[in-house]
Design brief:
binds 3-methyl-2-oxobutanoic acid, 16 strands, alpha/beta, 3 domains, single chain, TIM Barrel, Double Stranded RNA Binding Domain, three-stranded antiparallel β-sheet, 20% strand, binds zinc ion
Length: 523
């Protein structure tokens, strides 16, 4: 890899997913990992295998599935974590073990109650153990920015000599500022004799809103891997936002003189997919992917952009995949045309997946004259990745009007009762509310909707609607919280589907996963 190529290490599925409100189930993680490989990230940190059985399974499945991208599993600096991480990632084309231990006295003394010498030994032993499994080993001295510099340099030197091929410098608590962080990286280049044997990486948290700025300062100082997350999600205030860091490097190429392997046209779809899966939207003024990121409100700006976009736009919306709305297909489009279009969008579906996809495509094309790429992306989520849950909606009938009380009939199939169908009717404040009440009557669920988010996928009154809800239910003394999605051309149906999807996820959490215990394993 050339010296000016920045490795994009995505940790959305690890650091991002471990933060409250962003948890994903297995199918969602697989769906997202597929999208990350379309986006062109170099490394997917798929999870922390020893933290739970669920994490182990999903890392393993991602490792066996994605091609052309490295898959990393996180492990604390102990043999059990490393062995389990290896077990989870060994099926990947290019597996990476990422092991870490803290280097700051604050952590060493107060959290681990150890000495610097003991921690150094553990770090070296961890790298050596990981190296016994794979040549691709990353080491992170956690809380590096609050560590004694000379000790940090000693640890970086020792772990490189032990075989680490990447050393990642984390600003774990988001404490650093750009000039200081750049200076730290320069210090390491000047004081670690073996530093050129490894790639220097950075992992910045955003507690002071400086994660992207710090990562870029590190790149200027010689770092060549950025750890980041889509939409900047992650512990507390989040991590370096992938889209911001990548677009900064691209837009200011003359300054950084570096490149990434990211297909920037996939940025918007990736951001939207994450929003869709987690139900957490980005603020409208969020750089690159916020709804207003390319909106020009003032008259002077609009006038300038109409004359020449360069007047007020430093990058084009098309570059990040905004405003494609490419008309693709309709009711009469043949199977071949649809397959070709999916391929050009980066999807390669198995025969079975295509079969399921076509059922959804035909149903949509029958009612919607024009089908856009954005519609296809949502349909793929529905048809290919959505897990089969306990309940399936088989009919919805809504009756509403300005002067008649809304009433909805819902029919549900219950897989736990041999597919028996039950229906009920309820009133409510609108068709969705009435439908949700009908579902509550049929299932007897204690779950309730907490947030409701509606998006029209493409323009026009026949747009496909996507509803994302978060629903909560108390279970064994704890509050379970999930998101559910529903897509339909009718708003009420989409709302009811999203609630039933949430119920299915709650059932799954209760039955299969139990409640994930992350307390001890959290980093
Ligand atoms: O923030 C942090 O220090 C981490 C490490 C595990 C890299 O997430
Ligand atoms: Zn982190």
């Amino acid at each position: 890899m050339n010296d000016n190529r920045i490795i994009i290490f995505d940790t959305t599925l690890r650091d991002g997913e471990q933060s409250p409100g962003f948890s994903m189930n297995m199918d969602e993680k697989l769906h997202f990992a597929d999208q990350l490989s379309r986006l062109g990230v170099d490394v997917i940190e798929a999870g922390f295998p020893r933290s739970s059985q669920g994490d182990f399974e999903s890392v393993k499945r991602i490792a066996g599935r994605v091609k052309g991208v490295q898959v990393a599993g996180l492990a604390r600096a102990n043999s059990e974590d490393i062995d389990v991480a290896w077990d989870a990632i060994r099926g990947a084309e290019n597996p990476r073990i990422h092991t870490f231990i803290s280097s700051s006295d604050i952590h060493i003394v107060h959290q681990f109650k150890k000495t610097r010498e003991e921690v150094l030994e553990l770090a070296v032993a961890a790298v050596k153990r990981a190296k016994g499994y794979t040549s691709n080993v990353e080491f992170s001295p956690m809380d590096a920015t609050r560590s004694d510099r000379a000790y940090l340099a000693q640890m970086v030197q020792a772990t490189i000599e032990a075989g680490a091929t990447t050393v990642n410098i984390p600003d774990t608590v988001g404490y650093s500022i750009p000039s200081e962080f750049g200076d730290l990286i320069r210090y390491l280049f000047a004081n670690v004799p073996s530093i050129h044997k490894a790639v220097i990486s950075v992992h910045c948290h955003n507690d002071l809103g400086l994660a992207v700025a710090n990562a870029l300062a590190a790149v200027e100082a010689g770092a060549r891997q950025i750890e980041c997350t889509v939409n900047g999600i992650g512990e507390r205030a989040g991590n370096t936002s992938l889209e911001e860091a990548v677009m900064a490097v691209k837009t200011r190429a003359g300054l950084f003189n570096c490149t990434t392997g990211i297909n920037t046209k996939q940025i918007m779809s990736t951001s939207k997919l994450l929003t869709h899966i987690t139900g957490v939207t980005v603020q409208p003024n969020k750089a690159i992917v916020g709804a207003n990121a390319f909106a020009h409100e003032s008259g002077i700006h609009q006038d300038g952009v109409l004359k020449n976009a360069m007047t007020y736009e430093i990058m084009s919306p098309e570059d990040v995949g905004i405003g494609r709305s490419t008309l693709v297909l309709g009711k009469h489009s043949g199977r071949h045309a649809v397959i070709e279009r999916l391929k050009s969008m980066g999807y390669s579906l198995s025969d079975d997946e295509l079969e399921r996809f076509f059922k959804y495509f035909k149903a949509l094309a029958d009612v919607k004259k024009q089908v856009f790429e954005e519609d296809l992306e949502v349909l793929i989520g529905e048809a290919v990745y959505k897990e089969k849950g306990r309940f399936k909606v088989t009919n919805v009938q809504v009756s509403t009007g300005m002067y008649s009380p809304p009433m909805t009939l819902v029919t549900l199939k219950d897989r736990d009762r041999d597919g028996a169908e039950s229906f009920d009717v309820a009133h409510g404040n609108g068709g969705v509310d009435a439908g949700v009440n009908a579902v509550i009557k049929i299932t007897g669920t204690g779950a309730r909707i907490r947030t409701f988010n509606l998006v029209a996928i493409t323009g026009g009154s026949d747009a496909l609607c996507e509803v994302t809800v978060t629903a909560e239910e108390e279970y064994e003394g704890r509050m379970l919280r999930v998101t559910g999605n529903g897509v339909n051309i009718d708003i009420s149906v989409a709302g009811i589907l999203s609630f039933v999807d949430a119920l299915n996820k709650l059932e799954y959490r209760k039955k299969v996963n139990g409640i994930r215990e992350r307390v001890e394993a959290r980093v």
